[in-house]
Amino acid sequence: MNTSLKNELKRKALHLTGLSVPILYIFTDTKFILTFIALAFALFVVLEPFRIIEELRDRIKVRLRLINPEMVAGIEVLEKHVKDIERTHERGNVAAHIYFALASLIVVYFFSEEIAIASVTLATLGDALAAIIGKNFGRHRFANGKSLEGSLAYFVTGLLVITPLLGIKAAVLGSLVGTLVEFYGVPPDDNFSNQVCVALALYLFSLL
Predict the structure, then answer these.
(1) How confident is the model at residue 12 (pLDDT cuts 50, 70, 90)?
(2) What is the pTM of this model?
């Protein structure tokens, strides 16, 4: 397995922890899941400066080295894993997990349980499968580097996720919207735009 694919699998494995949101939502209620996401989002925001600013991490490691050198070694291993899975544009900017948590908070707060579960699940599974299949089996590439195979993987995932929750017509619409958002990388970040755009599309469809 080449290094690029290995790092992509590591990134997507971490990304799949986003499935904790729909899973917990199924077994709890809106208040609990909003609290869970809000706490995760707050933690991510607090820790983000330490990921971005290397000098800040170094100052902390100097102090910790006097107290617990083994902890510093653990931090450095974690740093290496983080660098392995970071996108180039994330190294000096907000990372995907912050956008994902913020979008989940918005989607769960403003939309129904079925729409929220569908949107978050699709954004999590669809993105992961599109990237993995696109990197492994993508033979028909577009100018932006995305592949037809990856986009089809996202679309099919959407059909499988949304149909049991909202029906086939809503699934086709939501999957198409999500596929386009993922393909074009709609700003500010597709981890944000994917959830919000799919949820909005499904909501508007439900009004027809």
Answers:
(1) low
(2) 0.81
Considering all CA atoms of the chain, what is the largest pairwise distance in Å, rounded to the nearest integer?
A: 64
Q: Classify residue 18 by its DSSP letter.
A: G
HEC string for 126-153: HHHHHHHHHHHHCCCECCCCCEHHHHHH
The pLDDT tens digits for 175-195 are 999 999 999 989 988 889 999
Other residues' Cβ atoms within 10 Å of the Cβ of residue 88: 7
Instruction: Name the CA radius of gyration of the chain, rounded.
Output: 18
Q: Say if residue 188 is preceded by a cis peptide, omega within 30 of 0.
A: yes
Q: Which of 9-18, 112-121, 165-174 has the lowest mean pLDDT?
A: 9-18
Distance CA 83, CA 87 (A): 8
Q: Return the closest-CA partner of residue 112 out of 197, 39, 202.
A: 202
Contact yes or no for 175/159 (Cβ under 8 A):
yes
Q: What residues contact 112, with CB distance under 8 A and at least 6 apart?
A: 203, 206
Indicate the SS3 state at residue 80. Answer: helix
Rounded-to-integer distance, Cα 107 and Cα 41, Å: 14
Whole-angstrom distance, CA of residue 50 vs CA of residue 204: 40
Residue 191 has which token pair? 């981890």
Per-residue pLDDT of 86-138, as tens digits, reads 666 556 678 888 999 999 999 999 999 999 999 999 999 998 899 888 887 87
